[in-house]
Amino acid sequence: MAVKPASEHAHWSSRWAFIMAAVGSAVGLGNIWKFPYEANSGGGGAFVLIYLGFVFLIGVPLLVAELSLGRRGQLSPIRSMEKVAKEEGRRTAWSLIGWSGVIGSFIVISYYSVVGGWTLSYMIQTVLGNLQGITGEEAVAGFDALVTNPWMPLVWHGLFMGITVGIVLRGIEGGLEKAVTLLMPALFILLIGMVIYAGVTGDFAAAVSFLFQPDWSKLDADVILSALGQSFFSLSLAQGSIMVYGSYLTRQVKVGKAAVTIAAADSGVALLAGLAIFPIVFAYGLTPGKEEGLVFQTLPIAFGQMTGGVVIGTLFFGLLTVAAITSAISLLEPSVSYLAETDKFGRKKAAFIMGGAAFAFGSFSSLGYGILSDVTIFGQSIIGFKTYLTNNLMMPMAGLFTALFVGWFVSRKAMMDELAMEEPWFRVWYFLVRFICPTAIAVIFYHVVIGF
Ligand code: PHE
């Protein structure tokens, strides 16, 4: 199987298109669906502070590392890693970082699309006014009925995956760019609108103190690891997504600045999502539900009771769907780019094959709440196991090796040339990626996996 030359590799048409795509990848279900409930179980402000620390001290340096490796390689993550390792006179085994990303993103898209399907279904439910006036029990029962149904979740999962494949097969300029430059500004406007609405009608003060007042008593090693996992997941790190987006970059773009912009937008959206959701939850006297239920079970009660709930509810689930789609395309892209850069597959064929395989693999997750709900892997549900495997094991591991690779195995001079950062920023970045990232990840990892 011959590989097409790097000169045939696609490129973003502008810096703006790249930023929108990368922010679109980062901002997703992780910010709006997962962050609020993780913050809730991790003690509110304490979790938020630690999470933000991880984003800027570990996340940003790794974003820079991944973007620059992708750009230098100008190939899919697996082949880019192989190429850079060879150029630096290192073992090609470093391409395992690329493999871990491609396999990880495939595992994630398989269940991400299931949750994406739920959001699609909720959007339609709200448009149809089906949530109007529902009680707490009805909201809980409605969600359970959807996820335990033997075939409905599969249909929504298929539809969501179909939309994702439909965008990815059109390529970088024709598909990804068009989708993100349209959808991302819409998402920001919707989100700001939701926050203003929540601020005016909800209990904003309670939400602010919940999100920003630390309750340190809830903090333990597991919460710290989930804050780390969440920061990786939310920034799309160690999944090949950022590296493959980096491979479509030209040399004009300043990678350091772009990384800070992406991280700031991503954590900004997570906090705004909290400020859109919790004021409503508190104003209606609801307690933040556990886990998946917060957005799907708790919020619909509020939408069902408020005036204009149909519109607000539709906007909210529309927002969630848009965020999910722009992330899903970045989850499919790493494996598609790997196949599409060979002469055996065109992009279309690659997108259908990987999308189809992810749909099939994801159908177990889709059914994991219904007919397969008795199936557990190491005591966890199917989605729970996939999340643990990718967020808490594969991502930190791949992140650790990425930091070690750029910090210790690529020459300092090559990194300086690639990044073209001004001093003192290069020195700060280099210090973080060489010492802080690997040590912090290794220590947290050791505590949780090896135990104490
Ligand atoms: N960052 C996305 C989110 O927060 C999910 C994602 C993870 C996307 C990994 C790409 C790679 O929802």
Count the domains.
Answer: 1
Radius of gyration: 21 Å
CATH architecture: Up-down Bundle
| H-E order | HHHHHHHHHHHHHHHHHH
Bound compounds: phenylalanine
Total beta-strand segments: 0
> Low-confidence spans: pLDDT under 50, at least 5 residues?
none
The CATH fourth-level homologous superfamily: Amino acid/polyamine transporter I
Tell me the helix content: over 70%
Polypeptide structure, described:
76% of the residues lie in helices and 0% in strands. It is an all-alpha fold and 452 residues long. The chain has one domain: Amino acid/polyamine transporter I, CATH 1.20.1740.10. α1 packs across α12 and α3 crosses α9. The model has no long low-confidence stretch (mean pLDDT 89). It binds phenylalanine (PHE).
What's the layout of helices and strands?
Blueprint: H1 15-26, H2 29-41, H3 45-73, H4 77-87, H5 96-127, H6 136-148, H7 152-168, H8 172-201, H9 204-212, H10 221-234, H11 241-247, H12 255-283, H13 293-305, H14 309-340, H15 347-367, H16 382-409, H17 412-419, H18 425-450
Helix pairs in contact: 1-8, 1-12, 1-14, 2-10, 2-12, 3-4, 3-9, 3-10, 3-11, 3-12, 3-16, 3-18, 4-5, 5-7, 5-14, 5-15, 5-16, 6-13, 7-14, 7-15, 8-12, 8-14, 9-12, 10-16, 10-18, 11-14, 13-14, 14-15, 16-18
The protein binds phenylalanine.
